[in-house]
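Q: Can someone sanity-check these two? First one:
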Amino acid sequence: MSNETLNKKLTYLPDERGYFGRFGGQYVPEILKPALDELLAAYQALKNEPQFFREFEEELKNYAGRPTPLYFAQNLTQYYQKARIYLKREDLAHTGAHKINNTIGQILLAKRMGKKRIIAETGAGQHGVATATVAAKAGLECCIYMGEQDVERQKPNVQRMKMLGAEVRPVFSGTQTLKDATNEAMRDWLSNVQNTHYIIGSVVGPHPFPMMVRDFQSVIGRETKEQIQEKEKRLPDYLVACVGGGSNAIGLFYPFLDFKSVKLIGVEAAGLGLQSGKHAASLTSGKPGIFHGMLTYLLQNEDGQVQLPHSISAGLDYPGVGVEHSFLKEDGRAVYTSVTDEEALKAAFLLSKLEGIIPALESAHALAYLEKLMPETSPQQVVVVNVSGRGDKDMETYLKYLE
């Protein structure tokens, strides 16, 4: 990412207070304001340093293994016999998911700020693994917060984090999932802000985190734009990505925001069904509220309290959503929909059998939407689906449903 490239996106940057439209901001205790100001100042300074982005690009290329392929899914295309389907293979990036892009950027930032300790929250564990990876490489102490329920259903990633030298702190409060892990990470940051950098894993939280994470993840969309023009000599008609917090989706969408012919579709987790109340579809069924330092769409009960989310995917099991997605929903630039646990499982098994690719459960939600989208397409059109992560971590869940 060059500085020149980054600054061409000013149209969609948040305002000086960190708002995307009416969403975003900094809803935090006063004690955190200096830390956020320090972070914003450091990031704004680094944005103007060509050396920083040269270092970032070198790490993406030589450590993370970018660019990731844009793969033509011939068998999946033949299955639907409609538009040509391409898969952006973030599952092939180092550590097995798109999460490595953001952690590389933030660890470089943390080093520049002189921080000695790194903390993070994780649900599916992919962000935790990516954070533990870059912290190990940088020689920094690392602590990962993870809900106890997620510790149990994402054991392979817990083991990977420990092997990388990170401390994994289980969280036993609340639903013992990503929401509660984020709460504990924020409490830790409040107590240790002088020497600790909090690597938030998605486009959520107080300003400037949503902007920073989006910028670091936008490499996904920039590569996709170049690769699809090489392969098809045109831009795609549809981009499809799963949305929990929404970092992989905004990373794919962002470089296409000015190209109105490209339809942007975010797919949330409908869990056991939207009518069941057991889902994680914040944009589809939530309403604006304040959560984890930001104003965004949020699952709430009749009293305005946070409604507990549910998804078969630990990475989507979050009651809020990235603030820029809330803006894009109300702006109408992106469309948000949802699929159930059952539909996601079916899509995961279909992709595995047709293309030999086992997707993460998160990515399976985006793939599941093809069942609804493809009948509306024509053979002349092009669809790109972001495979945000690989399914190794979800094997215990998949095996329960394998006949």
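And here is the second, same format, sequence then tokens:
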Amino acid sequence: MKTDQQSRPVAPQRTTTKAPPRRSTLPALDRFGLSSRRVFVRHVAACGIGIILLYPLLWMLSSSVKPDGLIFTDSSLWPSEFDFSHYSDGWVALDHPFGLYLVNSLIIVVLSIIGNVISCGMAAFAFSRLQFVGRKAFFAIMLGTLMLPSHVLLVPQYVIFSNLGWLNTYLPLVVPAFLASNAFFIFLMVQFMRALPKELDDAARIDGCGNYRIFLSIVAPLCVPAFATTAIFTFIWTWNEFFSPLLYLTSPELYTVPLALRQFMNAEGLSSWGQIFAMSTLSLAPVIGFFIAGQKYLVDGIATTGIK
């Protein structure tokens, strides 16, 4: 016979979950032999080195708003007098407004990014995911081109582009990017694609996908960090390129930003340093902005490929 206490349903006991105790980072640091004082010293040293490295940039920013007479006599980063006329005067100091040279550089940079991402991505897909005769030999030859100085190729490239009638156009600066001519980007993407499981390709082939469909639908979406890294490096290198535009471009209306900055020296002499620094500051803005926007993908791309 059951008693009232036995027949009464037992209420479920309320379980309380306690938040996990916060771990202190000091034991982990001590485990690796790093005390908090040593970490603090390292951070201070890193900040000091960073300030030293940034000093030329800060000096240029400061000089762009100083009067011409104080640029080389006042070494302080905070000007005693401000003169913002360098920006307005430098913008119209050349034969064409400085915005035209920014647009010219932007056109070359955008086309170069598109060409490098597409062509180098497809070449990396072939080296990393496909099997064909001579794959290892072609890959070794491609890596060997990394050791060739760029100046070795200047004369034959100039002759070829001259015979094609491409001089004084953007074609010599853009077309090589669409032909997978940069071995560094191919190698970067090959290392990234090799880390992807090949079972994805096998599953796609069972579903009837070809190589182009596998590249566009399977591999390319997973290689966004590698593509972003390629785009950032292409932007920085192409935007700052001076020698190739100087070699192939002769019309001032086609000049890029580095060639325009060089014109300040020829047109105004030593009295236009303030305008040069002002326009140099403006020319750095797109590079810094693009780098900040893609910094996350740049770190992920390099960390994932890991220079394996």
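A (reply): Looked at the second one. Confidence is low (pLDDT under 50) at residues 1-7. The CA atoms of residues 101 and 260 lie 7 Å apart.
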